[in-house]
């Protein structure tokens, strides 16, 4: 369980998180939604200890994250923009990350599923954006940890890779993992998410299932529900 209490974060005069209270129980897929700049990445980076909050407390599996780092070994994180040096080859990168994490890994089945065999000897700066994203997904999923945090995982993927990604995530959920995803792809959310967390103006506007959100906003689908929220008709 991830517990967030009274979380505040301000950048300059920009109040990004305004007293977030959130409990994320284990074993489900959570979609964090909200307009551009609403603080989704800031929230997940706070959980990861990559952003230091101004106020508030976060615990992951009972451990406070402040000034700690051991808890992070329980988390697999896919960042929105992964910046690895362009002159490293894919296989070298996989070996490097394995050496750093020192955990059992299962890269072979992911290499097959994501069809990465032809690219293993290629340097990262020679890869297309979608192939780079597949490499990032492989690095995220190859370790068997209880929490997965995925910032825009569908970015640049073709339909076949998207199907593989959804399948990989479903299998992770079946094995009891907690999966937190930020995305703007509403079809992905409708298909995959057990719970939606909607951020608006630095706070949580809604947390619950898709059907609860549709009921709350009196709309027929997620696209219209979000349009209703952002136009202020349901704040
Ligand atoms: N390191 C930083 N320094 C200054 N401002 C920042 C920093 N990181 C984020 N911000 C600002 O905080 C706000 C929230 O950014 P964040 O990336 O968390 O939003 P988001 O909901 O993930 O957006 P998007 O949907 O566009 O990815 C934005 O106004 C952004 O400019």
Automatic annotation (TrEMBL):
GO terms for molecular function: ATP binding; ATP hydrolysis activity. This is ABC transporter ATP-binding protein. It comes from the Bacteria. The keyword Transport applies. PROSITE patterns: ABC_TRANSPORTER_2 (PS50893). The keyword Nucleotide-binding applies. Residues 2-226 form the ABC transporter domain. CDD domains: ABC_DR_subfamily_A. Keywords: ATP-binding, Nodulation, Nucleotide-binding, Transport. Gene3D superfamilies: P-loop containing nucleotide triphosphate hydrolases. InterPro entries: AAA+_ATPase, ABC_transporter-like_ATP-bd, ABC_transporter_ATP-binding, P-loop_NTPase. It comes from Fulvivirga sedimenti. Belongs to the ABC transporter superfamily.
């Amino acid at each position: 369980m991830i517990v967030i209490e009274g979380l505040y974060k301000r950048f300059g005069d920009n109040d990004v998180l305004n007293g977030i209270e959130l409990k994320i129980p284990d074993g489900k897929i959570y979609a964090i939604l909200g307009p551009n700049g609403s603080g989704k990445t800031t929230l997940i980076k706070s959980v990861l200890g990559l952003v230091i909050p101004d106020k508030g407390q976060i615990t992951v599996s009972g451990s406070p994250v402040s000034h700690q780092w051991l808890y992070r070994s329980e988390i697999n994180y896919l960042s929105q923009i992964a910046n690895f040096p362009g002159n490293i080859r894919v296989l070298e990168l996989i070996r490097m990350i394995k050496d750093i994490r020192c955990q059992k890994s299962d890269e072979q089945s992911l290499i097959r599923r994501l069809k990465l065999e032809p690219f293993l000897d290629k340097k990262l700066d020679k890869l297309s954006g979608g192939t780079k994203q597949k490499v990032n997904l492989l690095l995220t999923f190859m370790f068997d940890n209880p929490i997965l945090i995925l910032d825009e995982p569908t970015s640049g993927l073709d339909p076949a890779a998207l199907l593989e990604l959804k399948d990989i995530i479903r299998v992770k959920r079946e094995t009891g993992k907690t999966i937190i995803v930020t995305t703007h792809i509403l079809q992905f959310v409708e298909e995959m998410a057990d719970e939606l967390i909607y951020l608006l103006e630095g706070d949580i506007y809604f947390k619950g299932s898709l059907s609860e959100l549709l009921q709350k906003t009196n709309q027929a689908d997620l696209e219209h529900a979000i349009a209703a929220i952002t136009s202020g008709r349901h704040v």
